[in-house]
Task: structure prediction
Amino acid sequence: MPQSIALTFGEPAGIGPDLTIALWRQRVALDLPSFYVIADRKFLARRAKLTGAPIPLEASEPREAAAIFPFALPVVDVGMTATAAPGLPDATSAPAAIASIRLGVRHVLGGEAAAVVTNPIAKNVLYRSGFTEPGHTEYLARLTAEATGRPMRPVMMLWSPQLAVVPVTIHLPLAQVPEALDTDLIVETGQITAHDLTNRFRIANPRIAIAGLNPHAGEDGAIGAEDYATVRPAVDKLKRLGIAARGPLPADTMFHPAARATYDAALCMYHDQALIPIKTLAFDHAVNVTLGLPFVRTSPDHGTAFDIAGTDRADPSSLIAALRLAARLAMRKEIAVAP
Result:
Protein backbone atom coordinates (compact mmCIF):
# COMPACT_ATOMS: atom_id res chain seq x y z
CA MET A 1 0.00 0.00 0.00
CA PRO A 2 1.47 3.47 -0.85
CA GLN A 3 2.54 5.64 2.07
CA SER A 4 0.45 8.61 3.13
CA ILE A 5 1.62 11.86 4.69
CA ALA A 6 1.20 12.21 8.46
CA LEU A 7 -0.58 15.42 9.43
CA THR A 8 -0.27 16.36 13.09
CA PHE A 9 -3.09 17.65 15.29
CA GLY A 10 -1.50 21.00 16.09
CA GLU A 11 -3.16 23.15 18.74
CA PRO A 12 -6.71 21.76 19.07
CA ALA A 13 -8.15 25.17 19.90
CA GLY A 14 -6.64 26.72 16.78
CA ILE A 15 -7.40 26.53 13.08
CA GLY A 16 -5.42 23.33 12.42
CA PRO A 17 -8.48 21.06 12.79
CA ASP A 18 -10.52 23.40 10.55
CA LEU A 19 -7.85 23.37 7.84
CA THR A 20 -7.47 19.58 8.05
CA ILE A 21 -11.20 19.13 7.50
CA ALA A 22 -11.20 21.70 4.67
CA LEU A 23 -8.33 19.95 2.89
CA TRP A 24 -10.03 16.56 2.97
CA ARG A 25 -13.23 18.10 1.62
CA GLN A 26 -11.26 19.60 -1.29
CA ARG A 27 -9.01 16.60 -1.89
CA VAL A 28 -10.48 15.77 -5.32
CA ALA A 29 -10.80 19.33 -6.62
CA LEU A 30 -7.24 20.13 -5.54
CA ASP A 31 -5.81 16.70 -6.46
CA LEU A 32 -4.17 16.42 -3.03
CA PRO A 33 -1.83 13.61 -2.00
CA SER A 34 -3.13 11.07 0.50
CA PHE A 35 -2.79 12.10 4.15
CA TYR A 36 -4.01 11.07 7.57
CA VAL A 37 -4.30 13.10 10.75
CA ILE A 38 -3.04 12.08 14.18
CA ALA A 39 -5.78 13.38 16.43
CA ASP A 40 -8.80 12.71 18.64
CA ARG A 41 -11.51 11.50 16.22
CA LYS A 42 -14.42 12.57 18.42
CA PHE A 43 -12.92 16.05 18.71
CA LEU A 44 -12.63 16.33 14.93
CA ALA A 45 -16.25 15.20 14.52
CA ARG A 46 -17.40 17.96 16.88
CA ARG A 47 -15.30 20.59 15.08
CA ALA A 48 -16.53 19.49 11.65
CA LYS A 49 -20.13 19.75 12.83
CA LEU A 50 -19.46 23.17 14.38
CA THR A 51 -18.05 24.54 11.14
CA GLY A 52 -20.99 23.22 9.17
CA ALA A 53 -18.88 20.69 7.30
CA PRO A 54 -19.50 17.22 8.76
CA ILE A 55 -17.32 14.67 7.01
CA PRO A 56 -16.81 10.91 7.34
CA LEU A 57 -13.99 10.10 9.76
CA GLU A 58 -12.53 6.62 9.99
CA ALA A 59 -10.11 5.16 12.51
CA SER A 60 -6.95 4.12 10.73
CA GLU A 61 -3.40 2.93 11.04
CA PRO A 62 -0.78 4.74 8.95
CA ARG A 63 -0.46 1.97 6.36
CA GLU A 64 -4.24 1.78 5.89
CA ALA A 65 -4.71 5.50 5.26
CA ALA A 66 -4.23 5.53 1.49
CA ALA A 67 -7.07 3.04 1.00
CA ILE A 68 -9.40 4.98 3.32
CA PHE A 69 -8.53 8.48 2.08
CA PRO A 70 -10.84 8.57 -0.99
CA PHE A 71 -13.90 7.82 1.16
CA ALA A 72 -13.18 9.24 4.63
CA LEU A 73 -10.58 11.25 6.50
CA PRO A 74 -8.22 8.68 8.09
CA VAL A 75 -7.63 9.43 11.77
CA VAL A 76 -4.83 7.75 13.71
CA ASP A 77 -5.68 7.90 17.40
CA VAL A 78 -3.47 10.36 19.26
CA GLY A 79 -4.05 8.40 22.47
CA MET A 80 -5.73 11.12 24.51
CA THR A 81 -8.89 13.18 24.62
CA ALA A 82 -8.95 16.81 23.47
CA THR A 83 -11.65 19.07 24.89
CA ALA A 84 -10.59 22.63 24.00
CA ALA A 85 -13.20 24.95 22.53
CA PRO A 86 -12.25 27.04 19.49
CA GLY A 87 -9.93 29.84 20.55
CA LEU A 88 -9.75 28.57 24.13
CA PRO A 89 -6.83 26.19 24.82
CA ASP A 90 -7.27 24.06 27.90
CA ALA A 91 -5.29 21.51 29.89
CA THR A 92 -5.70 18.89 27.15
CA SER A 93 -4.26 21.08 24.40
CA ALA A 94 -0.53 20.71 24.98
CA PRO A 95 -0.50 16.95 25.73
CA ALA A 96 -2.53 16.21 22.59
CA ALA A 97 -0.36 18.43 20.39
CA ILE A 98 2.89 16.98 21.75
CA ALA A 99 1.71 13.38 21.50
CA SER A 100 0.70 13.93 17.88
CA ILE A 101 4.16 15.23 16.97
CA ARG A 102 5.83 12.29 18.69
CA LEU A 103 3.68 9.80 16.79
CA GLY A 104 4.29 11.56 13.49
CA VAL A 105 8.05 11.31 13.93
CA ARG A 106 7.73 7.65 14.96
CA HIS A 107 5.68 6.88 11.86
CA VAL A 108 8.00 8.56 9.38
CA LEU A 109 11.17 7.13 10.92
CA GLY A 110 9.54 3.70 10.95
CA GLY A 111 8.69 3.92 7.26
CA GLU A 112 4.93 4.05 7.87
CA ALA A 113 4.51 7.63 6.60
CA ALA A 114 6.02 9.39 3.60
CA ALA A 115 6.54 12.71 5.41
CA VAL A 116 5.28 14.79 8.32
CA VAL A 117 3.26 17.99 7.93
CA THR A 118 2.74 19.80 11.21
CA ASN A 119 -0.32 21.89 11.96
CA PRO A 120 0.32 25.12 13.92
CA ILE A 121 1.01 24.95 17.65
CA ALA A 122 0.66 27.65 20.31
CA LYS A 123 4.09 27.88 21.91
CA ASN A 124 2.88 29.74 24.98
CA VAL A 125 0.37 26.95 25.65
CA LEU A 126 3.12 24.34 25.33
CA TYR A 127 5.50 26.32 27.54
CA ARG A 128 2.92 26.51 30.33
CA SER A 129 2.72 22.70 30.25
CA GLY A 130 6.46 22.35 30.81
CA PHE A 131 7.53 22.03 27.16
CA THR A 132 11.22 23.00 27.10
CA GLU A 133 12.04 23.28 23.39
CA PRO A 134 11.83 26.66 21.60
CA GLY A 135 9.46 25.23 19.00
CA HIS A 136 8.58 22.53 16.50
CA THR A 137 11.95 22.47 14.74
CA GLU A 138 14.02 21.85 17.85
CA TYR A 139 11.56 19.28 19.20
CA LEU A 140 11.61 17.32 15.95
CA ALA A 141 15.40 17.29 16.07
CA ARG A 142 15.38 16.03 19.65
CA LEU A 143 12.90 13.25 18.91
CA THR A 144 14.93 12.20 15.88
CA ALA A 145 18.18 12.19 17.85
CA GLU A 146 16.57 10.08 20.58
CA ALA A 147 15.27 7.60 18.02
CA THR A 148 18.41 7.34 15.90
CA GLY A 149 21.16 7.91 18.46
CA ARG A 150 22.62 10.62 16.24
CA PRO A 151 22.85 14.34 17.05
CA MET A 152 20.70 16.48 14.77
CA ARG A 153 21.27 20.03 13.62
CA PRO A 154 17.96 21.28 12.22
CA VAL A 155 17.78 24.27 9.91
CA MET A 156 14.60 26.23 9.24
CA MET A 157 13.85 27.18 5.65
CA LEU A 158 10.87 29.27 4.57
CA TRP A 159 10.11 28.32 0.98
CA SER A 160 7.86 29.61 -1.78
CA PRO A 161 8.15 29.52 -5.57
CA GLN A 162 9.30 33.16 -5.43
CA LEU A 163 11.87 32.91 -2.65
CA ALA A 164 13.55 30.55 -0.18
CA VAL A 165 15.16 31.97 2.95
CA VAL A 166 17.10 30.43 5.83
CA PRO A 167 17.63 32.39 9.07
CA VAL A 168 20.97 31.47 10.65
CA THR A 169 19.72 32.59 14.08
CA ILE A 170 16.02 32.26 14.77
CA HIS A 171 14.12 33.23 17.92
CA LEU A 172 16.67 35.51 19.56
CA PRO A 173 16.32 39.11 20.73
CA LEU A 174 18.05 41.29 18.17
CA ALA A 175 20.59 42.46 20.75
CA GLN A 176 21.81 38.85 21.15
CA VAL A 177 22.29 38.11 17.44
CA PRO A 178 25.85 39.49 16.99
CA GLU A 179 27.13 37.43 19.91
CA ALA A 180 25.35 34.28 18.71
CA LEU A 181 26.71 34.52 15.18
CA ASP A 182 30.00 32.86 14.45
CA THR A 183 31.73 31.64 11.32
CA ASP A 184 31.21 27.95 12.10
CA LEU A 185 27.45 28.44 12.60
CA ILE A 186 27.11 30.17 9.24
CA VAL A 187 29.20 27.51 7.50
CA GLU A 188 27.24 24.64 9.05
CA THR A 189 23.93 26.27 8.12
CA GLY A 190 25.16 26.81 4.57
CA GLN A 191 26.32 23.19 4.24
CA ILE A 192 23.00 21.77 5.43
CA THR A 193 21.10 24.14 3.15
CA ALA A 194 23.19 23.19 0.10
CA HIS A 195 22.93 19.47 0.95
CA ASP A 196 19.13 19.49 1.18
CA LEU A 197 18.68 21.74 -1.85
CA THR A 198 20.58 19.08 -3.79
CA ASN A 199 19.14 15.95 -2.22
CA ARG A 200 15.59 17.08 -1.53
CA PHE A 201 14.90 19.86 -4.03
CA ARG A 202 17.02 18.27 -6.78
CA ILE A 203 19.03 21.41 -7.52
CA ALA A 204 22.35 20.09 -8.81
CA ASN A 205 24.55 23.07 -7.89
CA PRO A 206 22.57 25.29 -5.54
CA ARG A 207 23.46 28.96 -5.41
CA ILE A 208 23.37 30.52 -1.94
CA ALA A 209 23.30 34.25 -1.33
CA ILE A 210 24.48 35.22 2.15
CA ALA A 211 23.25 38.45 3.69
CA GLY A 212 25.41 40.71 5.77
CA LEU A 213 24.43 41.50 9.33
CA ASN A 214 24.89 45.27 9.22
CA PRO A 215 23.63 47.96 6.83
CA HIS A 216 25.43 47.74 3.48
CA ALA A 217 27.04 44.49 4.67
CA GLY A 218 29.26 46.52 6.99
CA GLU A 219 30.99 48.67 4.34
CA ASP A 220 34.27 46.72 4.82
CA GLY A 221 34.17 47.22 8.56
CA ALA A 222 33.11 50.85 8.59
CA ILE A 223 29.61 49.93 9.87
CA GLY A 224 30.30 47.17 12.37
CA ALA A 225 33.01 44.51 12.32
CA GLU A 226 30.84 41.37 12.12
CA ASP A 227 30.51 41.15 8.34
CA TYR A 228 34.25 41.45 7.75
CA ALA A 229 35.31 39.30 10.71
CA THR A 230 32.57 36.65 10.85
CA VAL A 231 30.42 36.48 7.72
CA ARG A 232 33.07 36.90 5.02
CA PRO A 233 35.28 34.06 6.36
CA ALA A 234 32.21 31.81 6.37
CA VAL A 235 31.50 32.62 2.72
CA ASP A 236 35.13 31.92 1.83
CA LYS A 237 35.03 28.56 3.61
CA LEU A 238 31.80 27.54 1.91
CA LYS A 239 33.40 28.33 -1.45
CA ARG A 240 36.40 26.18 -0.57
CA LEU A 241 33.96 23.37 0.22
CA GLY A 242 32.65 23.61 -3.33
CA ILE A 243 29.41 25.46 -2.52
CA ALA A 244 28.34 28.33 -4.79
CA ALA A 245 28.09 30.94 -2.05
CA ARG A 246 28.19 34.74 -2.41
CA GLY A 247 28.39 37.43 0.22
CA PRO A 248 28.15 39.14 2.53
CA LEU A 249 25.57 41.03 0.51
CA PRO A 250 23.60 44.12 1.53
CA ALA A 251 20.24 42.74 2.65
CA ASP A 252 18.32 45.74 1.33
CA THR A 253 19.15 44.85 -2.30
CA MET A 254 18.82 41.04 -2.11
CA PHE A 255 15.11 40.53 -2.58
CA HIS A 256 13.96 42.40 -5.69
CA PRO A 257 13.12 40.18 -8.70
CA ALA A 258 16.42 40.53 -10.56
CA ALA A 259 18.42 39.73 -7.43
CA ARG A 260 16.27 36.71 -6.55
CA ALA A 261 16.94 35.24 -9.98
CA THR A 262 20.64 34.88 -9.12
CA TYR A 263 20.29 32.45 -6.20
CA ASP A 264 18.31 29.43 -4.99
CA ALA A 265 18.25 30.33 -1.28
CA ALA A 266 19.19 33.30 0.84
CA LEU A 267 20.97 32.81 4.17
CA CYS A 268 19.97 35.61 6.51
CA MET A 269 21.58 36.48 9.80
CA TYR A 270 18.46 36.88 11.93
CA HIS A 271 14.75 36.08 12.02
CA ASP A 272 13.14 39.20 10.57
CA GLN A 273 15.82 39.69 7.92
CA ALA A 274 14.60 36.39 6.45
CA LEU A 275 10.89 36.40 7.26
CA ILE A 276 9.94 39.95 6.29
CA PRO A 277 10.76 39.49 2.58
CA ILE A 278 9.15 36.06 2.22
CA LYS A 279 6.01 37.04 4.10
CA THR A 280 5.76 40.14 1.92
CA LEU A 281 6.08 38.08 -1.26
CA ALA A 282 4.23 34.91 -0.24
CA PHE A 283 2.18 35.54 2.88
CA ASP A 284 -0.58 33.05 2.02
CA HIS A 285 1.46 30.21 0.58
CA ALA A 286 4.94 30.15 2.11
CA VAL A 287 5.96 26.83 3.66
CA ASN A 288 8.20 26.11 6.64
CA VAL A 289 10.61 23.26 5.77
CA THR A 290 12.96 21.66 8.29
CA LEU A 291 16.32 20.85 6.72
CA GLY A 292 18.94 18.59 8.26
CA LEU A 293 16.61 15.74 9.28
CA PRO A 294 16.48 12.24 7.73
CA PHE A 295 12.85 12.77 6.71
CA VAL A 296 10.68 15.45 5.14
CA ARG A 297 8.86 17.85 7.45
CA THR A 298 6.90 20.87 6.29
CA SER A 299 4.42 23.18 7.96
CA PRO A 300 2.21 26.12 7.01
CA ASP A 301 3.87 29.44 7.70
CA HIS A 302 1.20 30.84 10.00
CA GLY A 303 -0.02 30.49 13.54
CA THR A 304 -3.09 29.14 15.31
CA ALA A 305 -5.40 32.11 14.54
CA PHE A 306 -7.49 31.60 17.68
CA ASP A 307 -9.79 34.47 16.69
CA ILE A 308 -11.23 32.58 13.69
CA ALA A 309 -10.95 28.98 14.90
CA GLY A 310 -14.18 27.06 14.46
CA THR A 311 -15.61 29.55 11.95
CA ASP A 312 -14.54 27.84 8.69
CA ARG A 313 -12.97 31.16 7.62
CA ALA A 314 -9.32 30.10 7.78
CA ASP A 315 -7.40 30.19 4.49
CA PRO A 316 -5.97 26.72 3.76
CA SER A 317 -3.51 27.94 1.08
CA SER A 318 -0.36 27.55 3.18
CA LEU A 319 -1.32 24.09 4.45
CA ILE A 320 -2.13 23.02 0.89
CA ALA A 321 1.29 24.26 -0.21
CA ALA A 322 2.94 22.44 2.73
CA LEU A 323 1.20 19.18 1.85
CA ARG A 324 2.11 19.43 -1.82
CA LEU A 325 5.73 20.32 -1.09
CA ALA A 326 6.02 17.43 1.38
CA ALA A 327 4.75 15.01 -1.27
CA ARG A 328 7.17 16.41 -3.84
CA LEU A 329 10.21 16.23 -1.55
CA ALA A 330 9.31 12.78 -0.20
CA MET A 331 9.47 11.36 -3.72
CA ARG A 332 13.23 11.50 -3.34
CA LYS A 333 14.08 8.83 -0.75
CA GLU A 334 17.18 10.54 0.54
CA ILE A 335 17.86 9.71 4.17
CA ALA A 336 21.42 10.90 4.62
CA VAL A 337 21.93 14.11 6.55
CA ALA A 338 24.63 16.67 5.90
CA PRO A 339 27.98 15.94 7.55
Observations:
- The first strand starts at residue 4 and ends at 8.
- The two ends are 33 Å apart (CA to CA).
- Residues 198 and 204 are 5 Å apart (CA to CA).
- Confidence is low (pLDDT under 50) at residues 334-339.
